[in-house]
Amino acid sequence: MNKDLTTGNPEKVLWQFCIPLFASVIFQQIYNIADSLIAGKFIGEDALAAVGNSYEITLVFIAFAFGCNIGCSVIVSQFFGAKQYDNMKTAISTSLIGSGILCLLLMIAGIIGSNSLLEVINTPNNIFADSKLYLNIYIWGLPFVFFYNISTGIFSALGDSKTPFGFLAASSTANIFMDILFVQKFNMGIAGVAWATFICQGISCILSLLFVFIRLQKIKTSRTVAFFSFPILKKIASIAIPSIMQQSFISVGNVVIQGIINDFGSNVIAGYSAAIKLNNLVITSFTTLGNGISNFTAQNIGANRPERIRQGFVAGRKMVWMLCIPMFLLYFFGGGLLISFFMNEPSQSTFETGILILRIISPFYFIISLKLVADGILRGLGMMKYFMFSTFTDLLIRVSLAFVLSRTSLGSTGIWCAWPVGWTTACICSVMFYQQKNK
Fold this sequence. Notes:
single chain, about 85% helix, mainly alpha, globular
């Protein structure tokens, strides 16, 4: 059901809209975690390291899909809020065409350059073949990743966060069972983990696109809708390109950090792989809630109701901090139990690495979550240069500090210490930019 986010109590509206978004990302991260967990439990520690190693590269591709999602979602939200339904439909078809072309180019680059990407991050020889196999299968499934992201962006722009939640919940649950079936029953190894994800993403993508088209047919327009528009593409690109740059540079930064981590051997890689999947569950949840706030902001800007934005910020801050409390307590005090889920008999260094990472970064979830709420409003307002500045500040600090501190007596611990410094600095920037715009 489409929902107008420009009326009603902002806090109540945001809660109703964002809870399904949060539930969706939980399911999405569950099946991401399932890949690593099943690889570690049923195949071995090297398999866990291979999945984690490839995962950092897949995040570069996801960055492009996520940027297309944001660009489409914000512009469609503005047209929907302004009740310009013909332009809204043109924006949707334009997004699908543009994203499809971009996806094709990335697939070609990924297939040709997979070896080079793995070599750049110093992938150890004992996990190179499995990393490449997982990565190649993932690349062939990129169209599903792109078009599913566009579909969820459209639903969110229309104020509907429940429909994509249903698809994602079903897909994630099926993915876990298929992971187990392919790996344990059919003995397919790493390929089984990758193909399970490929199949489930494909089914979810096709169904979500079908429902998008059905939903659009019910929205009547006053004139014939153009299938493609360069002016609208330019508007979408003005949001999408900075978002892609932001996400891709973060992903490239993570790949660089992965290369630094790889110098410490497969045991540290495995510990990091487990911890970073748990961390990404939280960060992606914050990011998704920030995206919901972007849709809320964009609809209200389209409806010329800017006074609701500050109320949205307060409500968003309350939501993410309520999430921070249990996740901090769970990761800080229960990290050892969570890390042990990924492996049957983890080595001592693997186990200690995972616990240490969670204990260093989890207290700073309150800070990074506040940044992502402010970022959501900046994106919804179209203030992309401010949003990018704070994000690049975080990235530059984390990558440079990770490199420097890992060369000191801190060793790999120095890498994990770089996260809080980058997050804190970037949070200060984002909140300052938000306050300047909403005085």
